[in-house]
Structures are given as C-alpha cells and as structure tokens.
Specification:
Layout: E1 14-19, H1 24-32, H2 42-53, E2 58-65, E3 70-73, E4 79-85, H3 91-100, E5 105-108, H4 113-122, E6 125-130, H5 139-152, E7 157-163, H6 165-173, E8 181-184, E9 207-212, H7 221-233, E10 238-243, H8 248-257, E11 264-268, H9 272-281, E12 284-287, H10 299-307, E13 311-314, E14 330-332, H11 337-349, H12 351-368, H13 374-382, H14 386-394, H15 397-406
C-alpha cells in the first residue's frame, strides 16, 4: 500500500510516538556507526519514523525506559527524548514530556490508558500499535482490560493495531471494537523460499537446540534449561544455545546447580542477521513462552518457519490455531519441562516427524502473512484520505472476521 504524497507540513502535523522501552537515539547512532540490527525489523521501523519526519512539521519519539534523560534532534530529523525512567514509568513526568511537544497526533506503542485519557482532554488524535496479548484471568487483569478497552473505544482513538490475527482477537476479547482493530505485520526480510527443507540430522555428536528471546522466567527460559537437564539424565546428547539478554546471572546459576555447564551456552544479545544464521544451523528451535507473558506473535516463530528448522513451542493462547502438534510443530503445556523434554526427544528419534514439520513450515508461514505492514498503517492513519480510510476498513478485524465467516 502506498500513501499518496501530500504537502503535509502545511497541515502542521506534530507527531509524538510513545514507547515503553527501546532506545531510539541509541539505535539510530548505532546504525550510523555501521552496526547491525539487534532484533527483527529494527532498521525498518527506525527508517519509517525518519521518513515521516521529512513530511511533517515535527516527529518525536519518547522512550520511557532509558539509562539517562536526553532530548535532542537526531541527524535523521527525528527528535528523540529518553525519559530516563530506569525500571517503571513515572506517568506524571511522561505526560509532561508529551505535553511539551504540543502534539496533534499521538502514536502509542504500549497499552497505557492514561495517555489516551490525556489526549482526549487535549483533543489530540490517537492511534496505537501493539504486539501484545491480554490475560483475562483475575480481577486485576479484568479491571485493567476494561479501563484500556474503554479508552481505546473512545472517539479520540482512530485505530488500534496489533501484531497478528490472534493478538488482534485478544484485543476484541477484552472489549475493543473489532472495527477499530487492524492486524499488522512487519515486512519479510527472509522467506521459506530462501531455504531448503531440512533432512533428519543423523548425528554422531550432540543435537543443537536454540532459544531466542528475553532470558526471563515468563518466557520459559528456565523451563528449557530444566528440560535439558531431564534429557541429560536420560543420556540424550543435546546442547542448548540461549540468545538474548535478561536475567543471565540467575539462569547461569541454575545451569551450574544442574551441572549443565557443558550443555548450555549463553550467547547474550546477538545481531539479528546472526539470529537467522543460528536458527538455520540449529537442529531444533524452541519458543516456550508461559501464558502470563503478554506475547503477540514472536518473530522467532516467523523466522524459524522461514529457515525451516523444526519448532517446539508452548501452548500459549497466541500460538493456538497457528501451531499444530505433530504437524507443523511440537506443542507442549507451558511451564511443563517434562513435556517439553518429551517433545524434543520425539523429534530426535523420529526422522519422518522431523522432516514433515520442516516441510510444513512454508505453508504455515504463508498462512500467517498479513497485507498491512506497520509503517503503512501509520501512514494511512496520519496522512488520512478517503482512499487510505477505505484501505484500513477493508483490512480491519471486522472485515477479517466477515471473510472468515463467508469463506
């Protein structure tokens, strides 16, 4: 989708993008120094904001969690503000930073209802782009979800994007109007056509299992380590590589306690290009997210499907209807290290199952593709026209559900 060029500066659009974390200034400067992406579509999103900055009066990115406070205009024309909140957001201070920019439009990249409430009082147009799911269990979650949904359903909010269909359905489940929800995706850097189907690895040495993501309990990092310990106890030759940052010291101690120093390797944060290589080289990949983790649809799943490495994943609600046990993946009960170990072992001994899952990766990947890309959603909202509005309506969740009914 291409948005027609318009002399937007005459219209005096002042866009403020608010995100919980992700240091925009640090990323831009790192790219200027010739360094690589640290996660999927990082350069794409940075460049998309820079392109918007060229077409509007002002474009500002406010990052909540940064090591220090800063406020500067970067060489790409984007004003970057690091709020300097180390651990939790100071909402009063964050709203003050937003107000100082005198925005006409707010793009919110984290589900915070207080910002929407402020925007409503100031008559500032709002759109939200998320990559989150929403837990509906427990009184606190129900109350928070109700407050968020009520804010998103207000007339001040034009569109609410979420990464993937299931995460968009999660928004509808908490009460957000489907006509406002637009499922979106990142553009594809690689596709399954770039890689051949994998053959069963008849190995004399250990199998290689790869975990990519935040190294925290809620993402299932500890469950994978425990599964490796159980496989070791049954003399299964397997090694685990963990790529990502997080509670490394905590899990390193766990590895030592389980005597797994020779089986588990922490790689730390690795460039995104290296992640693709690691996923392809691995014999197996694992996405063990627990249900409490607010998962959208992790890029590790997309990328694993692209490189056709057999995937083991938890039964997280956002993976349902996408991953089918014994067909395009192995699925285990989240938090169950024994069941996870059993899934890994099944692929290590069954060549037909291994090759079937690798073969099915391409078809599964194609089913996940969505026409709306992140930057196109923002452009169509920001540079509004009848054509752009119609395009968003044709690709909102209501249209998707209607197509599903009539298919």
């Amino acid at each position: 989708m291409t948005v027609a060029p318009v002399d937007i500066k005459v219209k005096a659009i002042r866009l403020v993008i608010v995100q919980y974390a992700g240091d925009y200034r640090e990323t831009v400067l790192r790219f200027m120094n010739g360094e690589q992406e640290t996660y999927y579509a990082q350069r794409y999103s940075v460049d998309a904001v820079a392109k918007i900055a060229q077409r509007v009066e002002a474009a500002t990115v406010i990052c909540g969690i940064t090591d220090e406070f800063y406020d500067e205009v970067l060489p790409n024309g984007v004003r970057a503000i690091g709020a300097g909140f180390r651990h939790t957001l100071n909402m009063k201070r964050l709203l003050a930073l937003i107000e100082q920019q005198n925005p006409t439009h707010l793009l919110i990249r984290t589900p915070i209802s207080q910002i929407i409430q402020w925007a409503k009082k100031q008559n500032v147009r709002v759109a939200m782009t998320l990559a989150d799911s929403f837990d509906t269990k427990g009184i606190r979650n129900k109350v928070d979800n109700f407050i968020l949904a009520s804010a998103l359903n207000s007339d001040q909010v034009d569109w609410v994007g979420n990464h993937g269909i299931n995460s968009s359905l999660s928004l509808a489940k908490i009460g957000v109007e489907p006509k406002k929800i637009v499922p979106w995706d990142w553009p594809s850097a690689v596709t399954p056509k770039d890689f051949a189907k994998k053959s069963f690895p008849h190995k004399a040495d250990a199998w290689n299992l790869l975990y990519v993501g935040s190294v925290i309990e809620a993402k299932g990092a500890g469950d994978v380590i425990e599964a490796i310990a159980k496989l070791k106890a049954f003399k299964q030759p397997i090694k685990l590589k963990i790529a990502g940052k997080g509670d490394i010291e905590q899990f390193s101690q766990k590895v030592k306690q389980l005597n797994l120093e020779e089986q588990v390797e922490f790689l730390g944060m690795v460039p995104h290009q290296k992640v693709i290589q690691l996923l392809r080289e691995a014999d197996l990949a694992v996405v063990p997210s627990r249900h409490e983790y607010p998962e959208g649809l992790p890029m590790t799943i997309y990328e694993t499907l692209c490189v056709r490495t057999p995937l083991i994943a938890s039964d997280h609600p956002m993976f349902q209807d996408i991953l089918k046990h014994g067909f395009n993946s192995m699925v285990f009960t989240a938090g169950d290290a024994v069941e996870l170990a059993t899934c890994i072992q099944a692929l290590m001994v069954d060549s037909a199952l291994y090759e079937k899952i690798s073969l099915e990766a391409e078809h599964t990947w194609h089913k996940l593709q969505i026409p709306v890309k992140w930057a196109d959603l923002i452009d169509a909202w920001l540079f509004s026209s009848s054509k752009n509005q119609q395009w968003l309506l044709e690709n909102n969740l209501s249209s998707y559900l209607q197509k599903a009914i009539t298919a």
